[in-house]
Specification:
The protein is an alpha/beta fold and 339 residues long. The protein contains nine helices and 14 strands. The chain folds into two domains: 156 residues, NAD(P)-binding Rossmann-like Domain (Rossmann fold), CATH 3.40.50; 164 residues, Dihydrodipicolinate Reductase, domain 2.
Length: 339
């Protein structure tokens, strides 16, 4: 198999930089274009000096550059991948790290993102894919939508338990804490009054866009409407997510049963690790990796359980998962190029 040409749009953002680091070592791809509208003509090393590879200068994204490539990764703000999708030819595959194609309904997109979807006809050409929860034939889709970082840390531990119907689904409480890189390079302007380096801040209560994605997927797997409360927090660290999930168990279900179901479901999955029960997780356990580590912890109440889930938001919650999807789409080993 000859190398596939890749274009990375949004190359200078936090996710774009991580994509470059992974794809530069990938044996099956060649980075042909790095694109970023506000940094044309600059070197990628101006944004991250740890990148040592000989890479092209940053250019504008154009139709011709899109069509010269096999794969387009979009790490651009919401709305931009919709525009890119309109310029795809038959041979192009778009892998999107934004929220543009995560929701199956354009009405839901308008509700949560407060803007009309500009490529509604392309929604049916897209697929939402969290690799460990899917057995879809990705070759049937031209647009692959990668899950958000918070939903990745939440869906991986919850979905197997919902499928097995061992937990109650009307009062799931999710408390998630993320490094500030999850808000992108504009985080310092967006949260300029939050004292990012020394304080912990709750935000987006009831209104965070990832609510819609979590709801869509949990309802899909449960075949019913699930009720959950999701509260995200911004923490004084650069990267990583730790989600703490509080669950009511069904009758005759205990901690060991939950643990065994997760172990069985993710057996053989290279990037999922189920820790020993009652392990206290840290984001430090996953930084710089494509892993999701899950710990099942007992509560002081017999009918309740606490699940901890840790990921690196920039890798498993972003670039690493995107490359996983690329590998699966083109029939490569799922972990090809991912350290």
């Amino acid at each position: 198999m000859s190398k596939m040409n890749v274009l990375i749009a949004g190359a200078t953002g936090y996710l774009g930089i991580e994509l470059i680091k992974i794809l530069s070592k990938h044996k099956k791809v060649k980075i042909k274009y790095l694109c970023g509208n506000s940094s044309v003509g600059k070197k990628i090393t101006d944004f991250d000096k740890s990148i040592k590879y000989n890479l092209p200068l940053i250019t504008k994204i154009t139709k011709s550059r899109i069509n010269e490539c096999d794969i387009i990764f979009s790490a651009l703000p919401n709305g931009e991948a919709q525009s890119i999708s309109k310029n795809l030819k038959e041979h192009n595959v778009l892998i999107d790290l934004s929220g543009d194609f995560r929701l199956k309904s354009s009405k839901e997109y308008l509700k949560w993102y407060k803007k009309k979807h500009s490529a509604v006809s392309n929604i049916k050409k897209s697929v939402y894919n969290l690799p460990e929860l899917s057995n879809l034939k990705l070759k049937n889709y031209q647009i692959i939508s990668c899950p958000g970082c918070y939903p990745t840390s939440i869906l991986i531990p919850l979905v197997p338990l919902i499928i097995k119907k061992i937990i109650k689904t009307q009062n799931i409480i999710i408390d998630s804490k993320s490094g500030y890189s999850g808000a992108g390079r504009g985080v310092h302007k967006k949260f300029k009054d939050k004292n990012l380096y020394e304080s912990l801040s709750a935000y987006g209560i009831t209104l965070h866009r990832h609510n819609s994605e979590i709801m869509q997927e949990l309802n899909f797997y449960s075949k019913r409407n699930i009720k959950f409360t999701f509260t995200p927090h911004l923490t004084p660290m650069f990267r990583g997510i730790l989600s703490t999930i509080y669950i009511d168990m069904n009758k005759n279900i205990n901690q060991n049963k939950v643990l065994n179901i997760l172990k069985q479901y993710y057996k053989g999955k290279k990037f999922i690790k189920i820790a020993n029960k009652d392990t206290f997780l840290s984001t430090n356990d996953v930084i710089g990796t494509n892993k999701c580590i899950i710990s099942v912890c007992k509560s002081k109440y017999k009918d309740k359980i606490i699940i901890l889930s840790a990921i690196d938001n920039l890798i498993k919650g972003g670039s690493g998962q995107a490359v996983q999807n690329m590998n699966l789409r083109f029939g490569l080993k799922e972990n090809e190029g991912i350290q």
